[in-house]
Automatic annotation (TrEMBL):
It is an enzyme of class 2 (transferase). InterPro entries: Hppk, Hppk_sf. This is 2-amino-4-hydroxy-6-hydroxymethyldihydropteridine diphosphokinase. The gene is folK. Residues 87-98 form the 7,8-dihydro-6-hydroxymethylpterin-pyrophosphokinase domain. SUPFAM superfamilies: 6-hydroxymethyl-7,8-dihydropterin pyrophosphokinase, HPPK (SSF55083). It comes from Dietzia cercidiphylli.
Length: 174
């Protein structure tokens, strides 16, 4: 089984750039990293007053199931010292599985512990903007990413700002 998954990674506690790089380096080391977006500075989404986040999107080819990919993300969160406190609140590293395909077939799941596609991805410019950078032709819930972006408040989309930082380790090539 090969699971191709789109992962959203982000954080706003500690050295966020370093923590994002740690997750990407782990994916590269394990040979599952296929694409990595730029780093984006993004205002907090979800109504909790907190610092801005750094966000990015990765595409991985994992040899296991979507749940194995979720567990991979949990392991990266633990490695970054993440504890779960406030919902949508500050965190060192969050890894969400945005969408997944198994052997080329899109996965749909309503399981509370793994909902696919991620139920809030379409509302989040911090996911859609970096995802469109690495997979411009991708679709979510039957619509192109550009259609989802057009449905969002343009100010929210414009507030997702690409930085010049690089996430992929030196010399990485897929
Ligand atoms: N597609 C998914 N990706 C990641 N976690 C998921 C997904 N679907 C369900 N979950 C479940 O969501 C639970 C809470 O995840 P988490 O603490 O990262 O939420 P959050 O980041 O605060 O909010 P959000 O889910 O809106 O991003 C996890 O225990 C996980 O099992
Ligand atoms: N900009 C931004 N806002 C968020 C983020 C995130 O990664 N980026 N993650 C959250 C928890 O799911 C809540 N809000």
């Amino acid at each position: 089984m090969t699971c191709r998954a789109v992962l959203s990674i982000g954080g706003n506690q500690g050295d966020s750039l370093d923590l994002l790089r740690g997750a990407v380096a782990a994916a590269a080391r394990e040979g599952i990293l296929r694409r990595v977006s730029s780093v984006y500075a993004t205002p907090p989404w979800g109504g909790v007053e907190q610092d801005d986040f750094l966000n990015a999107v990765l595409v991985v080819d994992h040899p296991g199931s979507p749940r194995d990919v979720l567990d991979w993300g949990f392991a990266r969160e633990r490695a970054a010292g993440r504890t779960r406190e406030v919902r949508w609140g500050p965190r060192s590293l969050d890894v969400d599985v945005v969408s997944a395909e198994v052997d080329g077939t899109p996965v749909h799941s309503r399981d509370e512990s793994l909902t696919l596609p991620h139920p809030r991805a379409a509302e989040r410019a911090f996911v859609l903007v970096p995802w469109s950078e690495v997979e411009p032709g991708a679709r979510l819930d039957g619509l192109a990413l550009t259609d989802h972006l057009d449905a969002l408040d343009p100010a929210e989309v414009a507030a997702v700002r690409r930085t010049h930082d690089r996430l992929a380790p030196e010399g990485w090539s897929r």
